Amino acid sequence: MSNSSLITHLRHVDVAMPNFAEQRTFYTELWGLTETASDSGVSFLAAEGSPEQYVVRLREDTQKRTDLLAFGAATAADVDTLATRLVTQGVRLVHEPKVLDTPGGGYAVRFFDNEGRVVEVSADVTPRKHRRIEARESIPVRLSHVLMNSPTPEATVAWYIKHLGFRLSDTMCVGGRGEIMWFLRCNTFHHSFGIVRGPHAAFHHASFEMRGVDEFMRGTGRMKRQGIERLWGPGRHRAGDNSFSYFLDRAGNTVEYTTELEVIDEDTWHPHVFDLKDPANADQWGTADEMNEFIAAKSHNDIDPALFVAPPM
After folding, report:
1. What does the DSSP 8-state code read for residue 26?
2. I need a labelling partner for 125 at 20 to 30 A (CA). Which of 88, 174, 198, 294 fits?
3. Residues 39 and 154 occupy one common structural domain
4. Domain containing 98: what range?
5. Is residue 248 included in any domain, yes or no?
6. 27 vs 308: CA distance, rounded Å
7. Is residue 172 part of a domain?
8. Is the pLDDT reported for residue 231 higher than 90?
């Protein structure tokens, strides 16, 4: 049974780490997010151009972990429908649909995916008053997409397609070594979510959309001048046709500035397989260094210690 109409968009990604204060400073003073709410050891961070109450939640913990991935649904009835379908399909819930006490409120169900990540789907969250990002203003407009590492990527991609109705947009491969990256969509953006073949389940990267190429380059330059470790970029991918500059945050998570992510026509789109043996498939511009094992290993990240363990909030 298809759930394709129930997931509308990506809302936020929630992460935990021991060095909370350092992370909070990175995202507010350097990366360009705005803290809209906070409590002891918790910070809710919004993108100025987005109606989402927050796009990143930071939480202090003794362990570095991904707390959850949050997606939107159109109505509370859709959340209930999805919850019923998940239970029928044998998916383990973290909690039944209920009213949220996070900024903006709402109504949500939480559940574990096949590898133990926590996923939340919510509706009726009060939109945040946001604003137009001005020319040359190099701060994120919105959270664009999140990718996760998986040691069983084919099964994980199939799980998200079966249970949440995601659609496959494109796949990356490396010659005869097979497929390594899958881009999944829940609306007309080329991808809001994706899976990367990796040695273990972990956060791969979160990407933030900028106003345009000029703002993207200004943000890239600001990170460089501040001495933030740059992994890869600037360049422009083939799959999704978006620009990219990847950096490491203060907990060693990969974060990306991007812009101009492709918007696709659902009626005519057919998935492609792009081979990274052709360097133009990784970077159409040819401005980024060649992808190598060092860069890939950094984005493999640390093993997530909290699979099938729900976060405390």
Report:
1. I
2. 88
3. no
4. 9-123
5. yes
6. 27
7. yes
8. yes
Question: Is 100 a residue whose pLDDT tops 70?
Answer: yes
- Phi and psi of 24, rounded to 5°? -60, -45
User: What pLDDT score was predicted for residue 294?
Assistant: 85
In whole angstroms, give the CA distance from residue 53 to residue 12. Answer: 9
Query: Looking at the structure, do residues 52 and 92 belong to the same domain, yes or no?
Result: yes
Q: Residue 107: which of 93, 117, 120, 88 has the closest Cα? A: 120
* DSSP one-letter code for 22: H
pLDDT at res. 3:
47
Asked whether residue 307 is domain-assigned, the answer is no
> DSSP E strands: which ranges in the chain?
9-17, 34-39, 42-46, 56-60, 65-72, 93-99, 107-112, 118-123, 142-150, 167-173, 179-185, 193-197, 202-209, 230-236, 243-248, 254-258, 272-275
Please tell me the predicted confidence (pLDDT) of residue 292: 84
Alpha-carbon torsion 89, 77, 59, 185, what sign?
A: positive
> For residue range 116-144, what is the model confidence (pLDDT) as tens digits?
999 999 999 999 999 999 999 999 999 99
The CATH number covering residue 237 comes to 3.10.180.10
167 with 285, same domain: the answer is yes
> Within its chain, how far is the Cα of 68 from the centroid?
10
**Residues 87, 149: one domain?**
no
- Number of structural domains the chain divides into: 2
Is position 128 within any domain?
Answer: no
Give pTM, 2 decimals: 0.97
Q: Is the pLDDT of residue 2 over 50?
A: no
pLDDT at 1: 38
